[in-house]
Amino acid sequence: MTISPSFFVATHLIRKIQKLNSQKRKIVIPTWSRASVILPIMIGHTIAVYNGQQHIPIYITEQMVGHKLGEFSPTRYFRGHKKTDRKLTRQKLKKK
């Protein structure tokens, strides 16, 4: 006997997707639920996940099933380490 793992999916998101599947329509669905797990009924839909500033559209594929929506919309962007200006550091060393 296998026990299925428990997972969270926002009810409003499931309702919208089931409604669109019954109508056979594909539109962008905005959501703030980053913790929702991607289910097989979501395949082929585009879901716009909020990252704190804007909604990032994500097209759902088979490989994404089982992952969470928040994994595909990054909230932080790494802009690189601080760059030092070599001319300024040389001038400071000469003054000492």
TrEMBL record:
Leader sequence segment: none
- One Pfam family of this protein, by short name? Ribosomal_S19
MF (Gene Ontology): rRNA binding; structural constituent of ribosome
Q: Which GO terms describe its cellular component?
A: chloroplast; mitochondrial small ribosomal subunit
Keyword rRNA-binding listed? The answer is: yes
Q: Which UniProt keywords apply?
A: Chloroplast, Plastid, Ribonucleoprotein, Ribosomal protein, RNA-binding, rRNA-binding
Member of which family? Belongs to the universal ribosomal protein uS19 family.
Summarize the protein's role.
Protein S19 forms a complex with S13 that binds strongly to the 16S ribosomal RNA.
Quote the protein name from its UniProt record.
Small ribosomal subunit protein uS19c
